[in-house]
Amino acid sequence: MTLLTQGFLKQLTELPGAPGDEGPVRDFLARTIRPLVDDLWVDHIGNLFALRRGTDLEPRRVAVLAHMDEVALFVTEIDDQGFLKVAASGGVNPRTLLGKVVQVGPEHLPGIILVPPDHFNRDPEVYRKVPEIDALVVDIGATDKENARARVKVGHRILFQTPFRLMGVDTTLHADAPLPIQGRISGKAFDDRLGCATLVALLEQAPYPFDLLAVFTTQEEVGLRGALVAGIKAQADAAFVLEGTVCDDLPGPPGEKRFPTTRLGNGPTLTQRDRSWIVHPPLLRHLLRTAQKHNIPYQFKHPNVGGTDASGFARYQGVPVAIVSTPCRYIHGPVSVADLSDFHNGIRLLSAAFADLPSLLAGETSPAALRDF
Predict the structure, then answer these.
(1) Is 1 part of any domain?
(2) pLDDT of residue 127
(3) What is the mean pLDDT of the chain?
């Protein structure tokens, strides 16, 4: 029976995992994959490493990365009325926050994000503007400052409280049933719990003709910090970064020409370059050939948008890196939407590409191989 059940993805996406506080996600993943791997360890920054040995006599080592953290808020101050003032941890979109339900601190206290009402300001322009995050507060139902301080401390993380759901005609969730092959899902932290789920699926399908080093990284949303540490330690011959990426295939103003970064349902997303890294051409070419050979749909991410753990992991060791992503609408907000066909086709693409990877690593990652790309 597959690990990719509806209950698995529900639990994985609903767990809190703010940057620097990924413990619940890491513990869940470690318990899940322990039976699948030969070795499992955690480094000082909190990255989870899992090694599945390959079938070749002298196997190469390929690292596959997905980050555990999600964008979040944290408490900066508790005012006299017991409201929590906040700041962002990662690139939170303030337009999505007002009125949203959140969980606060280690007790997961329920709270609501709001703007303190200003009854004396009647300027209509004030109400048309999106408030900055430092103008927002979280209401946890406290009666005053001391009441709030009894359960919340400055620095406590604040995460979105968003349930995982199947979307469409049949929305009934069956925890032990496999994920549907098609249909759409909604939930929080798809960036990058869908990447984590993809990596679990790849471990489940191992072994491969190389040593697979799974790396579930920390603090991607605040500067790729886990990947920077992992890249130095991993001693990998190549790497693949798995992501939940931007999808803005939404209607725009009438008559405006649209160039979406990605589109739901068009397949997993391949990156040529983004703002932080240029993908290694032979690895990208290998993914393209594999997709065409196996009739797997794919799409390209609009260049120069966003960044991933690729630039952190490869920065100091120069490891060849490729990036494969699942398109997700509304990332960096309280809820995202993804298409399960994109998710499953991403797993298919990577699994098929891994079968022929050793021959590529033996020759095509050399500088000479770049000339015929």
Answers:
(1) no
(2) 67
(3) 92
Residues 6+ apart with CB under 8 A from 15: 24, 25, 28, 189
pLDDT at 371: 39
Domain containing 138: what range?
A: 72-155
Spatial distance between the Cα atoms of 181 and 265, rounded to a whole number of angstroms: 12
- 262 in a structural domain: yes
Strand partners, 247: 329
* DSSP-based three-state secondary structure for 67: strand
pLDDT in tens, 308-344: 999 999 998 899 999 999 999 999 999 999 999 999 9
* More confident: 275 or 323: 323
Q: What is the largest CA-CA distance in the chain?
A: 76
Per-residue pLDDT, averaged over 152-166, amounts to 97
Q: Is 236 in the same domain as 317? A: yes
**3 state DSSP class of 240:** strand
323 and 307 in one domain? Answer: yes
Residues in the chain: 373
Tell whether 168 is covered by a domain.
yes
Place of tokens 């979307």: 167
Distances from the Cα of 281 to the Cαs of 297, 313, 345, 371, in angstroms?
19, 17, 21, 9
Placement of tokens 């890491």 in the chain = 26
The residues that are catalytic are 220
Backbone phi and psi for residue 272, each to the nearest 5 degrees, phi listed first:
-90, -45
